[in-house]
Design a protein that fits this description.
two-stranded antiparallel ribbon; Cytochrome Bc1 Complex, Chain D, domain 2; 12 helices; mainly alpha; two-stranded antiparallel sheet; 2 domains; 3% strand
């Protein structure tokens, strides 16, 4: 399925597609049936920002995934059409081109599948796919763009491919940490350097937050919202061991993405560090990697300094 890739050279030849930022893998997995093109990216961007494609005509994908907030919302949980509230925090779409599953519980296997989920969710955009398609087909400009990009009238599957293409182009790195890794020994402050040592060592953050995107793409139970009724990955798999497990989020752009955790319950990085320092919240399925750390106040400050160095 993921047989073709986009390199920096190919992106440059297409002119309108962004090149790979320093620190990310230059090879981007792209489905064979949905190659990246500038025209498709532009159509996906239009769809992403179009509020007419929601039940109340007031909400677009970008209403929750705000570019100014690194494609998050700044709210504890998502707010959908007619003021309806969701139960989970809005995750960033940045660097999701490298993802292996999507949504906090991994319910979607591809970006194309994920793109249609919020449109239909009654707590998000609240529009049936038939109504979504009808609105697209009722627009002369959309009919023209879909014909140019896909050679066919507007459809929900084609819209999903366009939106997924736009999301794949939203990549970010070239942060102080990346410049440090590239050989600039002065790119990290002294406290951030000490924090890096803790991150990789005693704090054990790197057991889950790994690689250029700082996520193992796996599901873990930290207990952060244990007892809330949100069963996480279990709702997808039905396996008891998945009770309370949620996907590891990226640590990129943390400076802009508060509040944190899948339920938005921790308002600051200080609160996040304190939560993990205490070993998470006990429950029958707590991840075995979580143990009390007993960090000093100085070590906590160093760790936060490093986490902030992941924001460009």
């Amino acid at each position: 399925m993921l047989a073709c890739y986009v390199t920096v050279a190919v992106a440059a030849s297409l002119q309108a597609l962004p090149t790979t930022p320093l620190g990310l893998d230059e090879y981007v997995p792209v489905p064979d049936d949905n190659p990246l093109t500038p025209a498709k990216m532009r159509l996906g961007e239009r769809l992403f920002f179009d509020s007419t494609l929601s039940a109340d005509g007031q909400l677009s994908c970008a209403s929750c995934h705000d570019p100014v907030r690194a494609f998050t919302s700044g709210r504890r949980v998502a707010r959908g059409v007619f003021g309806r509230s969701g139960i989970r925090n809005v995750p960033t779409i940045l660097n999701r081109a490298y993802g292996r599953s999507f949504s906090w519980d991994g319910r979607a296997a591809t970006l194309e599948e994920q793109a249609l989920g919020p449109i239909q969710n009654p707590s998000e955009m609240g529009l049936s796919l038939s109504d979504f398609t009808a609105r697209l087909q009722g627009s002369a400009s959309y009919r023209r763009e879909f014909a140019e990009v896909f050679g066919a009238p507007p459809s929900a599957p084609a819209a999903a491919r366009a939106i997924a293409t736009y999301v794949r182009t939203q990549r970010i790195a070239d942060a102080p940490y990346d410049r440090y890794r590239a050989g600039d020994s002065r790119a990290l402050s002294a406290d951030a350097g000490r924090g890096l040592g803790l991150f990789r060592g005693r704090a054990n953050c790197a057991s889950c937050h790994v690689g250029p995107t700082f996520t193992d793409e796996q599901f873990h139970n930290t207990g952060v919202s244990w007892g809330s009724g949100d069963l996480g990955r279990y709702q997808v798999t039905g396996r008891p061991e998945d009770n309370g497990r949620f996907k590891t989020p990226t640590l990129r752009q943390l400076r802009l993405t508060a509040p944190y955790m899948h339920d938005g319950s921790l308002e600051s990085l200080d609160a996040v560090i304190d939560f993990y320092d205490a070993g998470g919240k006990p429950n029958p399925w707590l991840d075995s990697e979580l143990v009390p750390l007993r960090l000093s106040p100085e070590e906590k400050g160093d760790l936060i300094a490093f986490l902030l160095s992941l924001s460009s």
